[in-house]
Fold each of these.
Amino acid sequence: MISVIVPAHNEEAWLPATLDSIRAAADHVRAQSGVGVETIVVDHDSTDGTAVVGRDSGATVIHEPVRSIGRARNTGARHASGEVLVFVDADVHIPRILLEVIHETMRDPQCLGGGVDTEHHPRRRVVRLHLQAWRVLAAVIPLVQGATQFCRRSAFHEVGGYPEDVWMGEDTDFYRELRRLARKTGGRVRLIRTPRVRPSSRRFDEWPLWKTLVWTNPLFIALFRRWRAAWAGWYSSPVR
């Protein structure tokens, strides 16, 4: 069983497309490998129709009143029944074959989990170049952001889940802990480079360039990741 966990705060507009892509991927892996898939939407204190969208799609909807993206991911994991947990952001389109690829990847008993490469399509060329530079940096460090991450349930509990006291970078922290656990136990983590997932580029398209450069700057993230007010424009009132 694969559990797909989708944290969502006021994502009524974007969530339907994400859930449609998850449903198509679930149908594919079920037909190819007989693997069951459950989808859990964690309604992260929304004030719009996010919960209704989730229920109408056939997903299990869990309400999480405490604002923390890490807490929302962890809440979904606590309610999941699958042995493989897949975390997908609410504005991300996943390819039809992705869950099948994750299933095949996790058939290796040494693989604890990993992440999926992203494919952004912002309108402005300078932003595309900026995000490409981020991809190069991520490959060198290495780090994998949380547009889509996956792991074994046992590994999730071993590393303690996602940190709940930060507003940015909880995904890279989680991936780093998975890598640390893999080194300790002789396991491995895997970055799936093909197929890639496609997150929304709404912030990069609508924000002024200076704001994009500041909010994605590693130094800014390191200094202010625990300060909620600094991320109001990212989580509390994102571009719709």
Note: The first strand starts at residue 2 and ends at 8.
Amino acid sequence: MSRLKVYYFSPTGGTQHVAQHLGERLGALLNAKAEYHSYTLPHEREEMPAFGADDIVLWATPVYAGRIPNKTLDYVRQALHTQTHNKSLALVTFGNRAYDNALAELVGLMEDGGMQPVGAAAMVTRHAFSDTLGAGRPDPGDLAALDSLAEQVAAKLASPNPHPSAITVPGEAHPEKYYTPLKTNNAPAGFLKAKPSCDSTRCTRCGRCVNVCPMGSIAVAGGRPSFGGICIKCQACRRSCPTGAIAFADEEYLSHVAMIERTFAEPKRTEFYV
């Protein structure tokens, strides 16, 4: 029996939720055992995946600045390089702005690595920066679209053709640039080096932020978190804090959040390709 191996990078849980929904549905249709693997935390990226010849691979990632998150890109590229030519599915999640080149980039990495992509999807989830942008997504309609994707992929895999036709998705498979975030005045927003801060009067010293940082960049100093390493603005620390003690106060960052909430409020559609 084939195995469905599902890998996801999901600092705030949205991508994991979508990947597991698609994995459960597709696994049931294929009568395949679904295995779930996170590569979110540093120790989870210390080893490369191992795929058997009959394994079907579902790879899921959020969109950061229109592409695969740059701090995970090398890991994804190496992980998707295989000699077994596995059938694969590409899944990206985006916060209702756009997925730009991310889906094409992921499909391209699969093809470059020797895999055979048979399906791809771009799913709207809540934007990590905002409580309103993409709120309530994925909704039942989004999940129904994933179910339809699973059904079409299962039918494609059941075809007697051992080499299914390639899929075509919008965007550049080998992009060179990332999306440039803008402020409310449409000037570039420069918050690359921005880091969160902690309100010591609200911090309970629970340590959750330390444990969820995908870069391993949060340490404890003086009994409370210290944000000294690389920050990818994933918001895992802020969203995991039970008292709301962690926040981003950088003015350029806050202006960008205001811009995307104003400009991209109209709900985007989930899109999939088989």
Note: The chain has a mean pLDDT of 96.
